[in-house]
What does this fold into?
Amino acid sequence: SPGGSMKRQQQQIDDLLYAEIRDRRAEGESDRTDILTLLLSARYENGESLSDEELRDQLITLLGTAYHNTAISMTWAFYWIHYLPKVKQKLLEELEPIGENPDPMTLFKLPYLTAVYQETLRIYPPAIFTLMRHIQEPVEIEGNKLEAGKAFGCIYLLHQREDLYPEPKQFKPERFLERQFSLYEYMPFGAGIRRCIGAALAEFEIKLVLATILNYYQLELADSRPVKPKLQSLSIGLNTDAVKMIMTGERN
It folds into this structure.
């Protein structure tokens, strides 16, 4: 049954996570800087560490919470890649020398793939606003006066600034090859100490999926007409079935 299948899959995930937690505990202190290492070193005020169950819950949250935004960003990336033939051609040329079964970290570091990923999240960031900020007292920032109270930063408007991104409505991955933007000029996951904890995982997932599918399959858009974004709460989403693609064959 669907319910039984879901429980079996959940158990498989739990088995993998608990096995990794046991292995990491057995390692003792480590110079790793990944999320699990940080969670293992975390302590409550009374000095106690997180239990295996608490670690599992934190990892499940990290893996599962933002799958919707990650999937939307992947969809936009596939749309732009196939809507703009030059972008697709450049990506395929970059992927061709790598061959079959490349090392994931090799894919992760590809410059044009990275630029396509960055431009996808610039033009349609997964979140429109930053988390709410509380202004304690009136302040002036670059000539803008802000009164005390609640405030949001708008990531979408930041990414549409023409002084930072000429022709901001155009999808141009090359802009990320030509210059490096600061943390507060390009911030699809926010910035500072409240930056999204899953940013690195999302980047890895999106790049790996894009490269793998493009490397093995030939795709095309079912409809060549432009697709417009749809506002969904605090994120930029898609109309249902807005992007349909057809697999036309496999790559040799």
Remarks:
- The domain at 67-128+154-250 is CATH 1.10.630.10 (Cytochrome p450).
